Amino acid sequence: MNKESRLKATINQRLTELGERERLKELLRAKLTECGWKDQMKAHCKEVIREKGLEHVTVEDLVVEITPKGRALVPDSVKKELLQRIRAFLAQHAA
Amino acid sequence: MKMEEGSVSSLDNSKLEGMAQDILSELVEDACLGLCFEVHRAVKQGYFFLDDTDQESMRDFEIVDQPGLDVFGQVYNQWKNKECVCPNCSRSIAASRFAPHLEKCLGMGRNSSRIANRRIVTGNNTNNKSESDQEDNDDVNDNDWSYGAEKKGEHSQKSTVICLNNIFIQTFFHFYFVFVHLSSINK
Fold it and tell me: How far apart are CA A53 and CA A56, in angstroms?
């Protein structure tokens, strides 16, 4: 177990060091906007805000309402593409 | 940086796959959080519901394209020759001369330190102060607020000294050049 978590930590470090994490983040953001996820989520945000009241909305409210739905609504194609890239990175840097 | 090859061969693909899934979850979570912050800021700054404006109201904000007006419909050269009140010395200055005046008045900008140095040197010559170091002079230039107060009183005294100095220098150079000219003729 210890070796695994150490390996995981090293991988994370490599991801950040080589800039790959930033690139993956950007890629994900672009894909999510492209496929309409962002607009969907924004519409959901509007509902939440109307519910809670414009003045009283906090970051916590949004996070609690948005994150689970957001995670669920990511299209499979986007997940697939990201996973491909991550696997490629792991293959290159973990073996 | 070498990876421990021994540790990797003991991991199956499923563990690597698990790792990949974890990384994906982190990235997705990050994207969601980013969205939350973006939305929250938009709400607090008041521009979140901006794109819900109806067509009628949108026409009030259309770009203006008339001569003499800027895109907001305001007249833009109305204040060309107005006068502004300097916040430092409370004098009324013409708008086109305002920026240079403010430079000198506040003691900032490229020329003001040169002028200040010159004035301080001549001030030392006439007031018989102890030879202050160069650094002191620079410090006085940096302290805008102290310098601005001192400037006005000593202005006439120092400018007279500067004029006199200029006359001496000019006379000196004049004689020097005449001398050189004469000596070259004699050769």
Answer: 6
